[in-house]
Amino acid sequence: MDARRNVTALLGPTNTGKTHHAVERMLGHPSGMIGLPLRLLAREVYDRIVASAGQMSVALVTGEEKLIPPAPRYWVCTVEAMPNDIPVSFMAIDEIQLAADSERGHVFTDRLLHARGLNETLLLGAATIKPMLERLLKGVNYVSRPRFSKLSFAGQKKITRLPKRTAIVGFSAGMVYAVAELIRRQRGGAAVVLGALSPRTRNAQVELYQSGDVDHIVATDAIGMGLNMDIDHVAFAATRKFDGFQFRNLTAAEMGQIAGRAGRYMNDGTFGLTADAGSIDAETIEQLEDHRFEPLRVLQWRNRNLNFGSVDRLLGSLNALPNREGLTRTRPGADIETLTLVARDLDVIDRASGRASVELLWETCQLPDYRNITGSEHANLVATIFRYVADTGRIDTQWFARQLAYCDNTNGDIDTLSNRIAHVRTWTFVANRQDWLDDPGHWQEQTRAMEDRLSDALHERLTQRFIDRRTSVLMKRLREREELMSSVDQEGAVLVEGEYAGRIEGLRFIAEPSDGEHSKVLISAALQTVSETLVGRAQSVVAAPDPDFSLDAAGNIIWKSHAVGRLTGSENLLKPRVETLADEQVTAPDREAVQMRLSKFVSRHIAGLLAPLVSLSEAEDITGIARGIAFQIIETLGVLPRDQVAEEVKSLGQDERGVLRKHGVRFGAFHIFIPTILKPAPTSLRLLLWALHDADKRGLDASALPDAMPQQGLTSVPFDKTTPRGFYQVVGFRVCGERAVRVDMLERLGDMIRTRVFWRAQREGEERPDGSVDGGGFTVVPDMMSLVGCSGDEFSSILKSLGFSAQKRKAPEKPKPEAETAADTATEAPAEAASEAPAETAVTEAPGDTATAEAAPVQAPPAETVPEVPAETEPADVPAPGSSDDAATTGVAAPETAAAQDAEPAEPEMIEVWWPKDTGPFRHQKQQAGNRSKGAKANAGKPDRNRHKKAGAGKKPSGQRPPAKRREKPMDPNSPFAVLGQLKQGLTKK
User: Measured between alpha carbons, how far is 779 from 230 in angstroms, rounded to an integer?
Assistant: First the structure.
């Protein structure tokens, strides 16, 4: 068949009705096929032909979608998906000038040269391809059609000043989103169209624009390929694009294809610039207006006669050069790059050993990379699918189901859903291969349903993000009622004929302050729109969930950044009154509904943050005195000084205390409080309720109080005397001298002091805690100061405010340094030193010497347990032979002897000891401790110089039994004196 027979080239600019003409010609034939550049346009044409010929007569074939009835008459396809083996009476190829495209051009060139109808072939496109058609196809009939409407340049405008029915064109998803977001804020919203959208999402977005819900559509250059919409003006947001390899300026022909979308049928259109788009020179503007562009000089070509003898031969045939003038070999596409990567896998090459397997490998490599992942990842996916099909003839069903299940999730933002749709498109392409899966019809249905779900979710996200439905509907209503020319934008600005008349904040209209008749006219024209808007907002407030509301520091109830109500004080601290902030345009029923809604929010907000207080106020198990204490806890908002209810607390039984504790109440030394409401959020709310309660009498400004609140994490702050009386208590602090201390830290300090000031050993060997003083009282230790975050005079002022006074006492004697004690323990005198030991020392070990045995509180260990050390390591403080042996006999050195050994007696060291006064929470414990001897306190910390004489120390042992002695407290076996006695006894025995 002659490739030129009955071939007609219908050439001309946009808006000449070329596609419409081709569809009409096809419907006049018994069968036909049309190839279109985009699947979005293919879906649009398919729907149109279905409406005319019926669904059972039309097939839709794209890379990701195949709707093929049993016996279709007409085929609507994307150019890449056109079947080559179906004879039809009519054949049409749209946008044939794309044969020059560096990425897809070779496909259009192949169809231009080889796709023919039995009776008629129609090539549709721009006039720029005519010279190439004349060179490649002799005898083609040419028909030129003029544009129906005029296209003219309208200059550059800000986005916010673009006219209605405008399409703003960007060249990346980020640019489209940014422009759409700006239009949403300024004009109520815009529809969004990107080439990556599914047909379902794209159609839903276009319908928003076509129906008039929005006046603007923001799109990529995908709208330049025959998408028919009612566009009056096209605005370029940029004049540069990334073509997959580099950023470059748009050609005049590319700009003309996009700008030509403006002005449909007989309506004139305009084009211009907006945002940061660069300027257009006068020559380009003239070309766009006159539709005169540089003719194409070369078309892209790829060899269609492939050699499947081996992978290497296949690659060689794909790299073949054209043998016709005007054609150039296209650069390697994604399918060739994938084949090159897969060919490096020896496992794949082993399977691709015959013509059929090489052909299968090539078909697998043509799986489009809709996901835009790296080449190696896509090649791995292709290799996996090839292995399945080559080994078993089918892809593993479970593996395919798992891959598909990863995408079946409608949660996420716009980018997440778009990415999932791209993944589904990949699996849809696979499912539409009839010989790759078991039950392909089932998987086609599954993938189509999944794409529809994701598309609906994506449409919803796009609408939520870029369209304010309330504002867009209002603007549509204003267009229908021409006498009402006022509007409200997303920011609440009220415009009348483009002039600012005021703003809507919450449920109130704030008119622009101005004088004169002009201002009155603006406000009067705006009131009807304002009334409708306020009513709608009131209904939105009533329907809004609790998270949409918040409570600020001044007691205002905030909804969408504006106050719609405020709190005022009442007799009940936990139940403030709610006042609605609304204009008179809000009707009484709506106002009442708003107030009820706000009251519910406030009630639940208080119940959530102050649950223990609300529980106390409603508890039925609290009676008697406990009920009175609970009432005072509520009145003080959870922090009640204990001295205010000291007598009542004394009268409480353990059961009544237990009931209060069950409701979160803690009984501390200084306060009765609820710890859980001392956190920042409950504290801010308690401060607000306290400020609102009798605010007029107190003269408080609730909004200023939070600035005085201590910062989170501080355990004490300097006392600010300018704060109102009671402020620190309500925020959970107590004023203590120069500082205000957090009450829970104050209670911890009290617990720490209590364990030291009246300490007594509860079991043998228990060590005295750091800071506890013999005879009662305590000294300040670092742990106490760290609790309240201060030291020095500030800490002293805290202790004084808690009922403690300081006194000077003599410091207790310090034990030997640990190093010397260890040395004494480890040292054993040499043998000659042991022989010189006095007889009195040896007597301590004599059998039957019970007097000496009773006098010695600690027995020395056996000699063999004392390690041997050289004589020179003996410490100098071991008593020399012939010296006083009182210490050796009794195990305790007499104070007089120790003092005699010092060359100069040192002045006694004094320490500051704190002791409870007769007032304060520790006065009862003090009275109990005071039952001891009055001299105990005076002698606290002083050594008992007569203790050794009372025990018979220093006397020579005799055969008579000594009189009964008062039982002495056992000596600490770890003391240096006990260790010294043990050492001497060991030496004597040896």
Answer: 88
Cα–Cα distance, 963 to 592 (Å, whole number): 98
Which stretches of 693-773 are DSSP H helices?
695-698, 727-730, 743-757
Q: How far apart are CA 714 and CA 789, in angstroms?
A: 8
C-alpha span between 625 and 617 (Å, rounded)? 15
Round to whole Å and give the CA distance between 343 and 340. Answer: 5
Average pLDDT on 906-915 reads: 79
236, 255 Cβ separation under 8 angstroms = yes
Task: Tell me the CA end-to-end span of the chain in Å, nearest whole number.
Answer: 130
Nearest to 226 by CA among 16, 370, 59: 16
Mapping DSSP onto H, E and C, the string for 406-444 reads: CCCCCCCCHHHHHHHHHHHHHHHHHHCCCCCCCCHHHHH
What's the rounded Cα separation, in Å, for the pair 147 and 427?
41
Whether 579 and 507 have beta carbons less than 8 Å apart is answered as no
Burial class from Cβ neighbours inside 10 Å (0-12, 13-18, 19+) for residue 732 reads: buried
Question: What is the torsional sign of CA 601, 605, 606, 612?
Answer: positive
pLDDT score for 153 = 92
Q: What is the DSSP letter of 908?
A: P
Q: How many CA atoms lie within 13 A of 723 on its CB side?
A: 23
Could you tell me if 914 and 777 are in contact, meaning their C-beta atoms sit under 8 angstroms apart? Answer: yes
Give the single-character DSSP code of 723.
Answer: S
**Residues 127 and 325: beta-carbon distance below 8 Å:** no
Distance CA 633, CA 665 (A): 9
As beta bridge partners, residue 806 has 914
Q: List alpha helices for 319-374, DSSP H.
A: 334-342, 346-351, 355-365
Angstrom distance (rounded) from CA 642 to CA 585: 53
Inter-helix orientation angle 440-466/397-405, to 10°: 10
Residue, of 37 and 945, whose pLDDT is higher = 37
Buried b / exposed e over 698-720, threshold 16 CB at 10 Å, is eebebeebbeebbeeeebbbebe
Alpha-helical segments (H) within 642-774: 646-651, 654-662, 680-692, 695-698, 727-730, 743-757
- The CA angle 132-133-134, to the nearest 5 degrees, is 90
Q: Could you give the count of Cα atoms lying within 13 Å of 948 in the half-sphere of its Cβ?
A: 20
Among residues 3, 275, 291, 48, the alpha carbon closest in space to that of 158 is found at 275
- 35: left (phi > 0), else alpha (psi -120 to 50), else beta? beta
The answer to which of 154-158, 459-463, 666-670, 928-932 has the lowest mean pLDDT is 928-932
Q: Rounded to whole angstroms, how far apart are CA atoms 365 and 350?
A: 16
Q: Are 19 and 124 in contact (CB under 8 A)?
A: yes
φ/ψ (deg, to 5) at 271: -140, 160
**Beta-strand relationship, 639-641 and 577-580:** unpaired
Cα 264–chain centre separation: 46
Which parts of 41-112 are beta strand (E)? Answer: 58-61, 66-67, 74-78, 90-93
894 to each of 104, 213, 951, 953, 954, how far by Cα in Å?
A: 108, 104, 11, 9, 9
- pLDDT by residue (tens digit) across 965-982? 444 555 556 555 665 666
- 3 state DSSP class of 598: helix
As separate numbers, helices (DSSP H) first and strands (DSSP E) second, the chain gives 39, 34
Over the stretch 786-826, which tens digit does the pLDDT of each residue have?
888 888 888 888 898 888 888 888 877 666 555 555 545 44
Q: What's CA 72's distance to the chain center, in Å?
A: 53
385: left (phi over 0), alpha (psi -120 to 50) or beta: alpha
Query: Which of 317, 251, 325, 319 is closest to 288 using CA atoms?
Result: 251
Q: Hey, is 670 helix, strand or coil?
A: coil
Which value, to the nearest 10 degrees, does the dihedral of the CA atoms of residues 105, 106, 110, 111 take?
Answer: -30
